[in-house]
């Protein structure tokens, strides 16, 4: 049986005007001349990937595809359809849809053209579609790659949660980034540089923050922006708890106190037991 979404070894049964008709002894499928790596003759055995064309007919290619039903791969987003999802290229003539069902409700977090996703394929109604790997899928990928604390690695945003974002590195490793270790806005498929902070329970944790000297400037601006947007008053002080700081500013208490102390030294803020006030 010729199976959609996987590689198979098939024999050239005959040659038509369009290409080579391949057979497994029961079914036939077309390998277009443009999808063959070399000239073939009747009786040759070729290894091909089976995909579906626009008419949902099974079609073959000898080109190397980026993902299959059984094997994951990184793919590029080539088009975004707001009401449907995004199309990704697997290196076949027909791009593959990743449904909006797999994407965040907030379309600002959707991937853009050129972003990178880690997917496997699935078959639905005789058509190949893309399915992103979740964190358990990624953690299930076995290889010998390990990271050390403070090591810098490259990767892509793979999912969002209430406590942070998940990333998959180019080595197929999963890294979780708590919201306290983020600055700015992020979306799926976005390439990021990650600094590994620790490994716990067979899971890596990391940060996307800059060095603390540079980050303190951004943190101070975040505090000032909040004050200016709230009539110069903020119900946080240096004595506020980590939970209170994280809930209001999405910042760690340590980073908050560092930037807060610097603002106080510069006479830009003042405080009492209950609140911080912007100095005008």
Report on this structure:
- The chain is built from 4 helices and 18 strands.
- With 280 residues, the chain is of the alpha+beta class.
- The chain folds into 4 domains: 7-61, Nucleic acid-binding proteins (OB fold (Dihydrolipoamide Acetyltransferase, E2P), Beta Barrel); 73-132, Nucleic acid-binding proteins (OB fold (Dihydrolipoamide Acetyltransferase, E2P)), CATH 2.40.50.140; 142-207, Beta Barrel (OB fold (Dihydrolipoamide Acetyltransferase, E2P)), CATH 2.40.50; 212-278, Arc Repressor Mutant, subunit A, CATH 1.10.10.10.
- A 5-stranded mixed barrel has the order 1-2-3-5-4. Strands 6-7-8-10-9 form a 5-stranded mixed β-barrel. It has a 5-stranded mixed barrel with strand order 11-12-13-15-14.
- Helix 2 (212-229) crosses helix 4.
- It starts with 6 loop residues before the first strand and ends with a strand.
- The mean pLDDT is 92.
